[in-house]
């Protein structure tokens, strides 16, 4: 899968989960500070990533700062594909 396709699929997944249509435009914004995600939302993201991409990321394996923006989530998924 091309990087652009993967990026867009992850953005689409996050938009679907959060309802925040602008996420693709603000990919470096801290999703927790902006209250787009909370702890439960982060778990939902990890479950959705596992279901859609087959990439397993345990909630305990990363610090919040390692997955607090769209770009960081994309980076973590790329690392595991």
Structural class: mainly alpha
Helix content range: 40-55%
User: What is the total tally of β strands?
Assistant: 0
Overall tally of structural domains: 1
**What is the CATH H-level superfamily?**
ACP-like
CATH topology group: Non-ribosomal Peptide Synthetase Peptidyl Carrier Protein, Chain A
Compute the average pLDDT: 93
Low-confidence stretches: none
Rounded Rg = 11 Å
Tell me the number of helical segments per DSSP (H or I, 4 or more residues long).
3
CATH architecture: Orthogonal Bundle
Helix and strand run: HHH
* Beta strand %: under 5%
Largest β sheet strand count, sense and barrel closure = none
Q: Based on Cα principal axes, name the global outline.
A: globular
Task: Report the top-level CATH class.
Answer: Mainly Alpha
Q: What is the CA-CA span between the terminal residues?
A: 10 Å
């Amino acid at each position: 899968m091309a990087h652009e396709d993967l990026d867009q699929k992850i953005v689409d997944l996050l938009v679907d989960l959060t309802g925040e249509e602008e996420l693709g435009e603000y990919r470096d914004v801290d999703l927790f500070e902006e209250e787009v995600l909370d702890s439960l939302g982060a778990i939902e993201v990890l479950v959705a990533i596992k279901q859609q991409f087959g990439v397993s990321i345990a909630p305990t394996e990363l610090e919040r700062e390692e997955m607090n923006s769209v770009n960081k989530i994309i980076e973590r998924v790329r690392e595991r594909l």
